Amino acid sequence: MNPTPPKPTRKDALSNRARILAAAGEALSVSSSASITSIAKQAGVGVGTLYRHFPTREALIVELYDQEIQKLIDLAHTLAGSQPPLTALRTWFDEVARYGQLKYGVSEVIHAATNGGLDDEHYGPFLAAIAVLLDAGAAAGELKRGVDPEDVLLQLSVLWRIPPGSGSATQAARILDLVVDGLRAR
């Protein structure tokens, strides 16, 4: 992946970095062509501050990807331990769909930074997160046994093909209903 400058340690710099990432996530979920200037403005920082943290647009996108994918990985484990299996799975899928809105417009950058996914350090942990949810559902008798997490990931990958905008959440929900229905134990 593209190297970014070392993470800042000053409280104001950490706050700026967090605001930039939050603003970038919001802006890029709406439009993949969101400008660096608009992201900086939305974050309440100057363009120079943004570039001190992220020297290129690609560096910003890769850092945002790292942050968002790690949240999803962590969330799967949290949900598996705190909710009934089908609820945990669907809640997690809904978050994956939200992430899909971000990935829709920036997937080319992510694929370039991860060598088409071959060098993606998050791939294994993401599959393991899916497995945690599938295993909990199978153990409860609610989901089919022996489902391959990679097969589920391929099904979920359609979510980053849904263009942001009116109706996208409804379409994602319909697709996720089909995926969950196909995973249910009969």
Structure description:
- The chain is mainly α.
- The protein has a domain at 58-183: Tetracycline Repressor, domain 2, CATH 1.10.357.10.
- The protein contains 8 helices and no strands.
- The chain has helices spanning 11-30, 36-43, 47-53, 57-82, 85-113, 123-139, 149-156, 168-183.
- Helix 1 crosses helix 5 (85-113) and helix 5 (85-113) runs antiparallel to helix 6 (123-139).
- The longest helix has 29 residues, at 85-113.
- The relative contact order is 0.12.
Quick rundown:
The chain is mainly α and 186 residues long.
CATH architecture of the domain at 58-183: Orthogonal Bundle
Report the count of strand segments.
0
Alpha-carbon Rg, integer: 18 Å
Order of helices and strands: HHHHHHHH
Topology (SSEs and partners):
Blueprint: H1 11-30, H2 36-43, H3 47-53, H4 57-82, H5 85-113, H6 123-139, H7 149-156, H8 168-183
Helix pairs in contact: 1-2, 1-4, 1-5, 4-5, 4-6, 5-6, 5-8, 6-7
